[in-house]
Amino acid sequence: MTSESKPSGISPLIDTHIHLDTYPEEQQTAILDNRQGCGLKSVISVSMNLESSRRNLELACQYQGFVEPAFGFHPEQPLPSDDEIKALFSFMDEHVNDMVAVGEVGLPYYSRLEALAAGGAWDNTLYENLLERFIIFAKQHHKPIVLHAVYEDADAACDLLKKHGVTSAHFHWFKGSAETLQRMADAGYYISFTPDLLYEPEIQELAREYPPSQVMTETDGPWPFEGPFAGQVTHPVMTAEVAAAWAEIQGVSVNEARRILYSNACRFYGI
Known about the structure:
eight-stranded parallel sheet; 8 strands; 14% strand
C-alpha cells in the first residue's frame, strides 16, 4: 500500500500496535523509507520475545522518533524456559530507558481454545504468573503495558492490574462482554481499533460505547485484513481509514477524530 502525504492542518496519527520487526525485509524497508509524509508521527513496535525485542531496539535506534519499541513476550506461543525468561527481563532492565512500554504480553486465549478443542489438557497458571511478572515490572519502572487479553482473559488481566495498582494499560484489538468493557473503561484502561473497524459490526458497536478519551488507532501489522483491505499488505497508514471510520461512528469530523486519537496516544505513551 502506498502512503500519501498528509494534508496541511490535519493531525498526524500513531499506530499504537504493530509488529514491525516481523515484516519481510522488503516490506519493512518500504514502510520505513516512506515514513515521511505518510501522516504518521510514530509507531509502537511491540515484541514477541527476546530476539524480537532486540530487533525492535535496533529499529528504534535506526529510526529515532518514529519507531518506539515495546519489549515483552507474546502469549500465543509456548512458554519460554526459565533461562529465557531471565534473559528477557535482564534485557528489559538494561534497556528500560529505551522502551516506551512493556508489551506485547497477556494470556493465550486462542492457543488455549485450540488445545482444548483438540482434547488436550491446559493449565493457564504459568501464563498468568508470567503476566504478573510483566505487570510488576511495568509498575516498578512506571511503564505502560500493552495487553493481548480478550473475552474472559481480559477479566483475569484486570484482576492482576488491580492487584498491583497498574492503571496505564492498553488492551489492543479487544473483544469481550459489555460487563468487561465497562470494567475496563471505569479503570481508565485504553483500547485501540484496527482496520476491521470498517467491516466488523462487533468492533463498530464497541467503538460506539467506549469513552472517546480512551481509544487509539492500531494495525497489528503484518496481520492481514479483509473487507476493503483484502489482498493488501497491512501498512500503518491504514490508521487513517480507521480514524475516518471512528469519526463516522462518533458523529465528528475526520479532523476532530484524528486530533482526539492522536492526543490520546501521545498522552498514554508519553510521546
